[in-house]
Amino acid sequence: MRIIRKLPIILGSIAVVLLSGCTQAKKQQEQTSEIKMAEFTNPLDVEFGDPYILDDGNGAFYMYGTGGGAKDGFATYSSADLVDWKFEGQVYYGNTENSWNLKNFWAPEVYKIDGQYFLFYSADKKDNPSNELETFSIGVAVSDSPKGPFVDIKNEPLFDPGYPIIDANVFQDDDGKYYLYYSRACYKHEVESEIARWAKKTGLYDEIEESWVYGVQLAQDFKSVIGEPVLLLSPPKTMDDKNSEWESRSVTSKEINRRWTEGSFTFKHDETYYIMYSANHYAGPNYAVGYATAKHPLGPFKKAENNPVLESNVKKGGSVTGTGHNMVLFLEDGSKMYAVYHGRTKQTGQNRVVFIDEMEIQSDGKLVVNGPGLEPRPYPLIDKSNKL
Q1: Where are the domains of the chain?
Q2: Distance (Å) of CA 227 to CA 179, 206, 216, 219
Q3: Nearest-5° angle of CA 216, CA 183, CA 373?
Q4: Residues 51-73: what's their mean pLDDT?
Q5: Is 101 exposed, middle or buried (0-12, 13-18, 19+ CB in 10 A)?
Q6: What is the pLDDT of residue 27?
Q7: Which end of the chain has fewer beta carbons closer than 10 Å to its terminal beta carbon, N or C?
Q8: The CATH number of 42-378 is which of 2.115.10.20, 3.40.50.150, 3.10.20.30, 3.40.50.1820?
Q9: Rounded CA gap, 336 and 328, in Å?
Q10: Could you tell me the end-to-end alpha-carbon distance of the chain, in angstroms, rounded to an integer?
């Protein structure tokens, strides 16, 4: 009789356990579905060239770039999830009555240091006594807010190496020293190489101009450089170089008589320095990204054999072209890395739009970018509750 009395209790307990299990399973299923729904597709809804994302902390991100609604200067967009971006307006105004700069405001990068925000950018100078077509220089501006307004720390370029320069990138090493990386513009920089001789022999071009990436130590106040710039990267001299084919496509495709090495971004992983760079014409379909490695921030750098790591996917059936001028965004204390870059699709036409793709460094040191692509992919940011 005691057993009979206890049986309903036992059955009730089993029912509670089963119901609880079903509820938990349903909750887990809903969370799993929610995670699957937390996806986005490239490109982002931002028309920027040369994009740069600042992680301002506490879940706030700001994106800067060339164009994007700014006239004679730079604008910014804000986001909390790296996918949905809000236009915050223009943050830097150049070409003013008292400014040193005139036009072609390109490639801004903003760094947060000791509570202040430093903007490094490229622009043509007003001072042009010989009426040159390109007078690109690097400027530095500062603000107390990522939304600006940014004001130049001095009314002149950072420094004058004797040739036009663009695409400033700043890296701070473990010892606290800052290094500036930039690209010498192609303008009036004719370079001899096997590609140049081939182009002349075939009647394609009489000369080939090149841009080269340099590095130099940067003063702690960002008002000057220390020492002489060091040449770090340039297009291959010989046609049998493993990187020659992809870095020369703008020439061999009869697009233009220039070979670029520009848009560099430097970071350190373990004990190795990585410098990513773009080659070919920024306005064309062949724009692509490679990288090189070194044991010192000023090299010597050795280009990777698996270059390019980011390029058009048209030959693979895709519709993305002109992928380049990337930066690297580190998330989750550096355990996750994302390549942020501009590109084009059939839908966007000639407008440069922003892509963000996860990247990794494999156990053998090889850098790999998982893109470009337009297929759905997980949001870069998912909180601890597995919700956006």
Answers
A1: 1-37, 42-378
A2: 11, 36, 7, 10
A3: 120
A4: 96
A5: buried
A6: 52
A7: N
A8: 2.115.10.20
A9: 10
A10: 56
Distance CA 311, CA 340 (A): 13
Instruction: Tell me the C-alpha distance between 171 and 361, whole Å.
Output: 19
For range 189-193, the mean pLDDT: 98
**Left (φ > 0), alpha (ψ -120 to 50) or beta: where does 322 sit?**
left
* Per-residue pLDDT at 110 exceeds 80: yes
Non-local (6+) Cβ contacts of 162 within 8 A are none
With 0-12 CB in 10 A as exposed, 13-18 as middle and 19+ as buried, what is 230?
Answer: middle
Predicted pLDDT at 15: 46
Give CA–CA dist 128/134, Å, rounded. 9
Structure tokens at 322: 């002109």
Supply the DSSP string of 57-111, one letter for each residue: ETTEEEEEEEETT-SSEEEEEEESSSSS-EEEEEEEE-S-TT-SEEEEEEEEEEE
The SS3 call for residue 117 is: strand
Dig out the tokens for 296 from the structure.
């010192």
- Amino acid identity at 223: K
Report the alpha-carbon distance of residue 292 to residue 277 in Å, rounded: 8
Residue 23: what pLDDT? 52
CB of 286 closer than 8 Å to CB of 308: no
Q: Which tokens hold the place of 276?
A: 């990513």
pLDDT in tens, 17-42: 444 554 555 555 544 444 445 899 99
Q: Would you state the structure tokens that stand for residue 378, as one six-digit string?
A: 């997980």
pLDDT above 70: percentage of residues in the chain: 89
